[in-house]
Amino acid sequence: MANPMVDDAREIKEVNPFESMMSRFDRAAQLLNLDPDLYNVLRVPNREIKVYIPVRMDSGRLEVFEGYRVQHNFARGPAKGGIRYAPDVSLDEVRALAAWMTWKCAVVNVPFGGGKGGIICDPIQMSQGELERMTRRYTAELIDFIGPEKDVPAPDMNTNEQTMAWIMDTYSMHARHTVTGVVTGKPVQLGGSAGRREATGRGLLFCINEAMKRLKMTPPQTRVVVQGSGNVGGIGAELLHESGYKVVALSDIHGGIYNPDGLDIPEAMKHLRATRSLEDFPGAERVSNTDLLEIECEVLAPCATENQITSQNANRINCKVLAEGANGPTTAAADEILHDNGVFVIPDILANAGGVTVSYFEWVQDRMGYFWREAVVNERLQEVMVASFNDVAKYADTHGVDTRTAAYMLAIDRVAYDTRMRGIYA
């Protein structure tokens, strides 16, 4: 007889992002025969910071928010990673995302380690003034731990260019001079990079293009389902449509729209911007976010949030290529099911690494005070993403493993090499 408490515990463990990350790390480390001492170093973060942030609300009352910054690894350079504002932010989630950033930076071979931050709050219920005061106090609490040579934050869920401008200004006020390189994802006028906003979606396109070549498919023959319509999903869908792919489904937080003959993505995005919803978009039928994942297609691109594909629905995923635009959209328990079903996975630490790659370009431009044209940024991004896709594919073929395991093995191998060469200071 099934035990509901055991089933519930198993399900909770499956969707815990840190557990998923660690199970993949453990598998890759085992296949690499990673030295036990290096394993002990790489499996844990370098530093975890918890801060309590008092904020004077518009009502006059004082509210205290809980915030985190996890710096996972510095072997290859400063920590790098976004800051998210959400009611369900947890230390486990931030810890997992920081580790993911370490592996992501290593996969695309940029000289950063991994970091991530978050504040438990409901930004939708907060005014612009409250968000600014919270951001500035959070920055002040972290002032000794961040900086161009230490840890370079970026936007993430519910944060944006404005948030980064507040962080940059707060840090600069303490430094007594303007420090543009303390964050990336800033407005272009404040030292941001051309092409940064589109970078994650564009990197996703470059990876899908390479997968199509590998599988001998062409864009016009390729039906694409995109979950999410924000900076990754929306921009990714527009770029895919522009490149000749047939995007048949797209979703927002409320649900999705579907047309087997293909959607007019530019018009759908205009409709979304005008009405703040894809609902009632003409020429398409409504579909739930759950059902959208199971639509028959050649490419499925989950670009929304974590834990969308689990052991519960993995057998119903009906695509040839899974291109993970979001962080952690697939649980570790679903990996084997997808592999057994012949799904070619472009894992998140590769597929959505376009953002951190152009963040690296922004950091470089800030440090030298010279900025590149968008065409140059996009060309260099393509070079990095194509080379990284081919590195992962070659690693998978050489070692006889799936692409996700190959990406982790490649990343861990690179970080382990640097750690071994630097040695442990004790």
Account of the protein in words:
The chain has 426 residues and is an alpha/beta fold. It has 2 domains: 47-189 and 398-426, Leucine Dehydrogenase, chain A, domain 1 (Rossmann fold); 199-351, Rossmann fold (3-Layer(aba) Sandwich). The chain has 15 helices and 12 strands. It has helices at residues 4-14, 17-31, 36-42, 91-107, 128-141, 161-175, 199-214, 233-242, 265-275, 289-292, 332-340, 348-351, 354-368, 374-399, 403-422; strands spanning 47-56, 62-71, 79-86, 113-120, 151-155, 223-227, 246-252, 255-258, 285-287, 299-302, 321-323, 344-346. A 7-stranded mixed sheet has the order 9-8-7-6-10-11-12. It has a 5-stranded mixed sheet with strand order 1-2-4-3-5. The chain is globular and about 55 Å long. The relative contact order is 0.13.
Would you spell out the secondary-structure blueprint of this structure?
Elements: H1 4-14, H2 17-31, H3 36-42, E1 47-56, E2 62-71, E3 79-86, H4 91-107, E4 113-120, H5 128-141, E5 151-155, H6 161-175, H7 199-214, E6 223-227, H8 233-242, E7 246-252, E8 255-258, H9 265-275, E9 285-287, H10 289-292, E10 299-302, E11 321-323, H11 332-340, E12 344-346, H12 348-351, H13 354-368, H14 374-399, H15 403-422
